[in-house]
Amino acid sequence: MSKQVQEVETIFCHATGDDYLVVVERDGQRLFRAKLGLSETSAGPRPAKFRLKQGSSEEPRQPDEFVELARRAGRIRISEQTSSEKRRELREMLEGYQLEDKTKAVRTCRYCASAGRYSPITTETAVKDDNDWICRDCARQELERQLTYSGSGEVTGAAKERLEDLMLEVQDLERIVNLLQGQLDPDLTKFDTISATTDEVDPVRVDSLNLHPGLQNLLEDRFETLLPVQSLAVDHGLFDGDDQMVVSATATGKTLVGEMTGIDRVLNGKGKMLFLVPLVALANQKYEDFQDEYGHLVDVSIRVGASRISDNGNQFDPNADVIVGTYEGIDHALRTGKDMGDIGTVVIDEVHTLKEEERGHRLDGLISRLKYTCEQRAKRRDDYGGAQWVYLSATVGNPEQLATALESKLIEFEERPVPIERHVTFADGQEKVRIENKLVKREFDTESSKGYRGQTIIFTNSRRRCHEISRKLDYSAAPYHAGLDYKRRKKVERQFGEQELSAVVTTAALAAGVDFPASQVVFDSLAMGIEWLSVQEFHQMLGRAGRPDYHDKGTVYVLVEPDCSYHNSMEMTEDEVAFKLLKGDMESVMTHYDEAAAVEETLANVTVGGRAAKSLNDRMLGDVPTKHAIGKLLEYDFIDGFEPTPLGQVVTQHFLDPGEAFALLDGIRKDAHPYELIADLELREDDL
Questions:
Q1: Are the C-beta atoms of residues 193 and 419 closer than 8 Å to each other?
Q2: Residue 228 burial (CB < 10 Å; 0-12/13-18/19+)?
Q3: Is 282 exposed, middle or buried (0-12, 13-18, 19+ CB in 10 A)?
């Protein structure tokens, strides 16, 4: 004891009932704890008992030992959490021993004090807990306890760090707990702002373009100058026939780049235009846009889908001046040998689809086959110069590499027309709908400086959930997904455009390019089906928030359910995924091939190119193991030499992979009903 007395630095006193807890420290380390009791004497309060605490037991010591400790201590601190009456009693006792000069009341963490730890706090370091203040370490522990108590599931990784950082930033535990209960405190939900940016580009005057008179007059009626990304494309050879890859944010006008050169080439007799998109809904929308805007100048047709049951032409006229199609629709035309004539321009919208696991290889193969078809046509027709290619995307992580691989000139424009505020909050599946309702109402009740009410796109992961959410919103809303018929989807698009709907609830699968001028995007889920979104898909979706002609800013809300996943095959939880997406870099766009994809594309290339199949494989972006694929095609009896067998023709025309083809053959041999065969195929796809 005497050695400890010699080296005492701090004595900390905190009232516990009638007595005081005494903590003795040296160099910030606790030496021991003790219990001090005072009694009233004629000279004032004096130590009456002093007991050293050792675990759950107490060792009685002489009360005068406390006085000796106090005299040797460098400082004596009294917790402000001690009542004023008890502080006055303790001070009076210390003054009786002339120790008042080294005595001071300090604010301390009440949890630490109760546990026998001296933990002084300041207004800069403390966290408010009800009407009291606690230290940061105890605040973290209390937050974790509250997370468990609230039933929020296990908040992991970056989400937990985010909550802790917010708590330390605002210094208020209750506000964080309220956030977990669905309160939308904008100071807490706001994650960041993607600023509006404007690159300096000299605008090209429309009257200087010298296009075909029909198109020239149409554009002059609509604009005086081109938008920056359009001006960049023109300045870098768009109307000289140069292939271009245009990468620019949503709503910056990149689509018109492809339209201008395509329509001009059509009108000048340089071949028809193909405008290709990944989804039927987008093709239908684009087909109508072309009809409305250019229908008086050119004939427009549409080619979508490739049904396994029948080949529905969908108003397809291969002799039309402009053909709007899905990737699979045009690829089906190639695989079945349809002659589309002289193709002068090919516009590939959403070219980042090349990276998708299920569809990327088909777009890669389509580009190769279409280029081959155009080149063969050019060889036969000396007066036909081949096609100009324009690739469009808002989200590419490796634009230079991809542009080089596609043998095109990169036109990259970094402008963000309006700022986007990104918010994150936490809620379970049922609580999410209540929050979404609040967000939709708040947005629709707000009018921009341009006179438009705020409207919302809610992205979720299933068609059923689309209907569930839209039914529960107080303001007018509608589901929108590929399961709706064409007439219903067009009605929703019209109602949204006329501001009759406060919100549409749609699946992530329809994120690309659907033209809803929304000011707000809400993520009800961060999954597409049973797969987590990629950073690229996430940016594509949030980029729908805010249009320069409608809104002053875009707003994005990510609603995160801690410890949630949508299928047992999903490795991460939604709270982990959320911050990976918010902080992540855009993925590179490149196509990867497994055996099934290599076999499918090689078979399609044999069907279209015959002996040229190897050169078609070689020009594709992905590394296709051609020899192995051809060996498998021979083994499966899909080809005979460099010609598809009847079985191979069926497989390639209906986009079957080898496993699906074998499932069909096996079913046919067993006299299975056709419905059973189709059901088996769908089940196989669900298992992928």
A1: yes
A2: buried
A3: buried
Look at residue 618 and give its three-state secondary structure.
helix
Beta bridge partners of 431: none
> Hey, CA dihedral for 320, 324, 327, 329, is it positive or negative?
negative
210 token code pair: 């010298």
Angle CA 485–317–646, to nearest 5: 90
- CA distances 513 to 279, 282, 486, 574, Å, are 9, 7, 17, 25
Which residues, 6 or more positions from 50, have their beta carbon under 8 angstroms from its beta carbon? 34, 35, 36, 37, 60, 61, 62, 63, 65, 66
pLDDT tens-digit readout, 555-595: 999 998 877 777 777 778 888 888 889 988 888 999 999 99
Are 305 and 317 in contact by the 8 Å Cβ rule? The answer is no
Query: pTM of the entire structure?
Result: 0.74
| Token pair listed for 51 | 């007991």
Half-sphere exposure of 260 (CA within 13 A, CB side): 28
- Rounded to whole angstroms, the Cα distance separating 454 from 555 reads 10
Give the residue carrying structure tokens 């809400």.
522
Nearest-10 Cα torsion for 485, 488, 489, 491: 160
DSSP string for 441-459: HHHHT-B-TTS-B--EEEE
What does the pLDDT look like over 361-420, one tens digit per residue? Answer: 999 999 999 999 999 998 888 777 789 999 999 889 899 999 999 999 999 987 777 899
Half-sphere exposure of 96 (CA within 13 A, CB side): 16
Burial class (CB within 10 angstroms; exposed 0-12, middle 13-18, buried 19+) of 55:
exposed
Q: How far is it, in rounded angstroms, from Cα 219 to Cα 190?
A: 41
CA separation (Å) from 256 to 260, 349, 488? 6, 11, 27
Residue 359: exposure state from Cβ atoms within 10 A (0-12, 13-18, ≥19): middle
**How many CB atoms sit inside 10 A of residue 269's CB?**
11
Distance from C-alpha of 594 to C-alpha of 598, rounded to nearest angstrom: 6
Which phi and psi angles does 98 have, rounded to 5°?
55, 45
- Alpha carbons 500 and 395: distance in angstroms, whole number: 31
Q: How far apart are the first and last CA of the chain?
A: 72
User: pLDDT digit string (tens) for 422-459?
Assistant: 999 988 777 899 999 999 999 999 999 999 999 999 99
Interior/surface letters 304-320, b for 16+ CB within 10 angstroms, e for the rest: bebeeeebebbebeeeb
Contact 72, 24 (CB under 8 A): no
User: Using alpha carbons only, how large is the chain's radius of gyration in Å?
Assistant: 35
Whole-angstrom Cα distance, residue 554 to residue 192?
Answer: 12
d(CA 100, CA 96): 9
State whether the Cα torsion 128-129-130-133 is positive or negative.
negative
Q: Which residues of the chain have pLDDT under 50?
A: 1-4, 307-313, 684-688
